[in-house]
Every structure is written in structure tokens, then in C-alpha cells.
Amino acid sequence: MKKEDHVHGLVISPIKDGTVIDHITAGEALNVLKILGITGSTTECLSIATNVASKRLGRKDIVKIENRELRKEEVDRIALIAPQARINIIREYRVVDKKGVEIPAILRGVIRCPNPGCITSTNEPIESAFEVLPKGLHCLYCDWWITQDIASHII
Amino acid sequence: MYHIISIRDFERRELDYMLDKAEEFDGRACDPRALEGKLLALLFFEPSTRTRMSFEAAMARLGGRSISMDNVEASSVVKGETLADTIRVVSGYVDAIVLRHPKEGAARMASEFSGVPVINAGDGAGQHPSQTLLDLYTIRQSMPIDGIDLGLLGDLRYGRTAHSLAYALSLYGAKLHVIAPNGLELPAGIVSELDERGMEVVEYEDVNDIIREIDVLYVTRIQRERFPDTASYFKVASSYRITPDLLADVRQHLIILHPLPRAGEIDPGVDRLPYARYFEQSRNGVPVRMALLHEVIR
């Protein structure tokens, strides 16, 4: 349990096994869940806190997922909407792995190209591929740019 | 392996190298057996006359042969085969593939599945690099490309040749003057990218405002299907028509280019004037494509 949690009372209880995603950009917790494919109809036991006070971010969101350890590809997706997020892997109430998120230079199979004329929008056996640049995301197949509302294009 | 997918993949020195190579093949005696025994596949999923024929002519002039998938309807494509599979199969038959496909990025994908070089001959509204090379080649026949003032006229929104040419010219310090009907302007994303590449882009409403201050006028076809009705098409098309009268007092060395086919954008009376270079431009497709084929087929 972290110091911040003490200061503001126990917002959400610790988990035995699973993943804690901390320092999510305030307001993005639900999008993080969407990226992870967690909806109301999935079985994961979840705790979500939004707009929690944070020294680093002012406000932040926290998501705790029991009995699921995030994989690298999932972490990369989170980086798109919550670049400051920290991933803690929990086993037997102890943090066994702690990692930041890092936006990769190329995103493969993460973003759906909004161009209906793009070859990646067809039944061809390929994944979408976007290069991550300061201006936005650039489709390596059709040259389209995504500069805003990136979360809505996540597969 | 060397694929020709997008003009954006080229650096300035690579463009110059390819143009020099095209010049070597142009007019002078070249080795008519340079590609003897080599086989080229032409995969055209969209109609094309000049691109396809000039690739065939280029291959034949270098002593190579071409095979083609004539009729998409009769091929396995209608049986639901993916382009990726078609490419894998055909690349087992030949030494290089020329591909035209309606989907953007199709050639890039094909290059990932092909065991032989792929040349993009147009992918939807995307890229058509051999066209851009022959455009540059035609300009270079008349004047050094560096620092020219080029007017781009017509459908600049969907016209892939216009986009590719603009990107290439940004490597030559050229200044771009754009004249397009409402709704068919150069997309803002492309303008900002050209700006980042240091290219000055100036917009005009009327070609009359700029025709006397440019070195090259590049005209593209305004397609009827972009307009809601025939009347509005004719109204716009007639106001973008290049006529001999319009060309009074232009720079003496002005050249007019058009990727062809034209649909009335250029009055046939212009064909007789020294400015008209669109038929030479079309002819230049052969040496430029010879250079590309010779470069990729090893």
C-alpha cells in the first residue's frame, strides 16, 4: 500500500495477486479498461479509483485487476493514453515487478487505421502499423495521420 | 531486395540517381539484352493503359518478358483469395512484380509477402512513384529542377500524382503554387507536411493570377464523379481550362505537364504551342520505367 493511500484513507483495498496500474492520467481509467478488453461482462474482479490526489500528477486514476498479470503488448497500449502510468505486478500481496510504460516507436496491431481505403482495413493477413511521432500516429501503409482522440482508434 | 513503393522513401540523391539512369536509357543505344531471360508480372487490379503499356514496353526494350493477370474477374481474386496470397504465388513465377491496386498501402503490404521486388504502379489515392519520377524527368529535360516555381492545378485533394510530385519537389527547394476548385484543395495535412519540409505553398483562386510567374504548370484531371451533378462539374471544369489565350505573356520557358488522360482541362489548341510537354512526358514513362526495372531486377 502506498503512502498516498494512507493520507486520503484507504481508497481501494490491496489485492493478493494481479496487477495494479497506478498514475493513470486522471479520467482515463475507463479507457484503460477498454484497452484491456475488460467490460461489464468480463469476470475480472476490479477496483477502480478515479481523480485520486497525487503528488506527481495532481489527480490520477488507479485500476487494480485481480488474478491477471499484464503482458508487454497490453502495457504498450496503455502508454498511448496514460504515458505516466506505472504497472505493479502483485503476487501474494507483494510487488514482484514494477514497470513504467513506454510508447514504442512502432505500434503493431494496436491502432485501427481510420482510413476505409487502407489495406489494413481489409481481410488481408496483416496487422496495422503506426509510427509514433510528435505530431501523432502515422499509418505506415496508407500514410494517414491520427492526431487526436487516439483512444477511440485502439483495437 | 529493392522495392519501389513510395516517393517518400527516396532521398534526393536517389531521385537524381534514378533520373540519371533514365537518361542513359533514353535515346541512346542501351543493351537490348540487359534483362534477357527475366520475367515481369503485371498485376493490375484497376484499369490502366499507359502505365501498364509503358512497363511492358520498358521490359521488352531491355530484352525481358512480361506476363499479366488480364482479367481480375476470371482470376482467383473472385474466389476470395487475399492479395497477400496472390503475391506469394505470383512472386514464385517471376523476377519482379508491378502492382496497381485500389487499396492504399497495398504495394507496401505486397512487398512484405513477395520474394521478388515490387514496384507500386498506384495504390488507390496513395502513391504512384514511377509517375513522379517521369514528371521530374520531364521537368529536368527543360530546366534544372532546383528552385522552380511550379503551379499545381486541378483536383489536388484526390490527385495522387499531385501529392507525390509535391513531396518530391520539396527536396529540390521548389515553390508550389496551388489552384484548386472548392472542396478539391490540397489536404491540410499534406500542406503542413510540405511546410515542415521547408516548402513554400501558396494558394490562388484563379490560374490567371499566377500563370505568368511560374516555370512549370502541372494540370490534373478534375473528375466528374467528385461533383453532385453534371452542371456543377461543367461550371468548375470550364473555369479551370487551359486555353491558348490564357498563355499569352507567360514565361518563355514555361512547360505544361499533365499525367493524362485529360478530360478537357487542356484545350487541344495548346498542343501546338511550345509549352505543351504532356505527350513527351507520357513517352518518358518508358526510359524511366526501364531505369526502375533495371535497378530492381538483379
UniProtKB/TrEMBL annotation, chain A:
<keyword id="KW-0808">Transferase</keyword>
<dbReference type="InterPro" id="IPR020545">
    <property type="entry name" value="Asp_carbamoyltransf_reg_N"/>
</dbReference>
<dbReference type="GO" id="GO:0016740">
    <property type="term" value="F:transferase activity"/>
</dbReference>
<keyword id="KW-0862">Zinc</keyword>
<feature type="domain" description="Aspartate carbamoyltransferase regulatory subunit N-terminal">
    <location>
        <begin position="11"/>
        <end position="101"/>
    </location>
</feature>
<keyword id="KW-0665">Pyrimidine biosynthesis</keyword>
<dbReference type="GO" id="GO:0009347">
    <property type="term" value="C:aspartate carbamoyltransferase complex"/>
</dbReference>
<dbReference type="Pfam" id="PF02748">
    <property type="entry name" value="PyrI_C"/>
</dbReference>
<dbReference type="GO" id="GO:0006221">
    <property type="term" value="P:pyrimidine nucleotide biosynthetic process"/>
</dbReference>
<dbReference type="InterPro" id="IPR036792">
    <property type="entry name" value="Asp_carbatrfase_reg_C_sf"/>
</dbReference>
<dbReference type="InterPro" id="IPR020542">
    <property type="entry name" value="Asp_carbamoyltrfase_reg_C"/>
</dbReference>
<dbReference type="GO" id="GO:0006207">
    <property type="term" value="P:'de novo' pyrimidine nucleobase biosynthetic process"/>
</dbReference>
<dbReference type="InterPro" id="IPR002801">
    <property type="entry name" value="Asp_carbamoylTrfase_reg"/>
</dbReference>
<dbReference type="Pfam" id="PF01948">
    <property type="entry name" value="PyrI"/>
</dbReference>
<feature type="domain" description="Aspartate carbamoyltransferase regulatory subunit C-terminal">
    <location>
        <begin position="108"/>
        <end position="149"/>
    </location>
</feature>
<protein>
    <submittedName>
        <fullName>Aspartate carbamoyltransferase regulatory chain (Pyri)</fullName>
    </submittedName>
</protein>
<keyword id="KW-0479">Metal-binding</keyword>
<dbReference type="InterPro" id="IPR036793">
    <property type="entry name" value="Asp_carbatrfase_reg_N_sf"/>
</dbReference>
<dbReference type="GO" id="GO:0046872">
    <property type="term" value="F:metal ion binding"/>
</dbReference>
UniProtKB/TrEMBL annotation, chain B:
<comment type="similarity">
    <text>Belongs to the aspartate/ornithine carbamoyltransferase superfamily. ATCase family.</text>
</comment>
<keyword id="KW-0808">Transferase</keyword>
<dbReference type="GO" id="GO:0016597">
    <property type="term" value="F:amino acid binding"/>
</dbReference>
<dbReference type="GO" id="GO:0044205">
    <property type="term" value="P:'de novo' UMP biosynthetic process"/>
</dbReference>
<dbReference type="GO" id="GO:0004070">
    <property type="term" value="F:aspartate carbamoyltransferase activity"/>
</dbReference>
<feature type="domain" description="Aspartate/ornithine carbamoyltransferase Asp/Orn-binding">
    <location>
        <begin position="147"/>
        <end position="294"/>
    </location>
</feature>
<dbReference type="InterPro" id="IPR002082">
    <property type="entry name" value="Asp_carbamoyltransf"/>
</dbReference>
<keyword id="KW-0665">Pyrimidine biosynthesis</keyword>
<dbReference type="GO" id="GO:0006207">
    <property type="term" value="P:'de novo' pyrimidine nucleobase biosynthetic process"/>
</dbReference>
<dbReference type="GO" id="GO:0006520">
    <property type="term" value="P:amino acid metabolic process"/>
</dbReference>
<dbReference type="InterPro" id="IPR006131">
    <property type="entry name" value="Asp_carbamoyltransf_Asp/Orn-bd"/>
</dbReference>
<dbReference type="InterPro" id="IPR036901">
    <property type="entry name" value="Asp/Orn_carbamoylTrfase_sf"/>
</dbReference>
<dbReference type="InterPro" id="IPR006130">
    <property type="entry name" value="Asp/Orn_carbamoylTrfase"/>
</dbReference>
<dbReference type="Pfam" id="PF02729">
    <property type="entry name" value="OTCace_N"/>
</dbReference>
<feature type="domain" description="Aspartate/ornithine carbamoyltransferase carbamoyl-P binding">
    <location>
        <begin position="3"/>
        <end position="141"/>
    </location>
</feature>
<dbReference type="Pfam" id="PF00185">
    <property type="entry name" value="OTCace"/>
</dbReference>
<comment type="pathway">
    <text>Pyrimidine metabolism; UMP biosynthesis via de novo pathway; (S)-dihydroorotate from bicarbonate: step 2/3.</text>
</comment>
<dbReference type="InterPro" id="IPR006132">
    <property type="entry name" value="Asp/Orn_carbamoyltranf_P-bd"/>
</dbReference>
<protein>
    <recommendedName>
        <fullName>aspartate carbamoyltransferase</fullName>
        <ecNumber>2.1.3.2</ecNumber>
    </recommendedName>
</protein>
<comment type="function">
    <text>Catalyzes the condensation of carbamoyl phosphate and aspartate to form carbamoyl aspartate and inorganic phosphate, the committed step in the de novo pyrimidine nucleotide biosynthesis pathway.</text>
</comment>
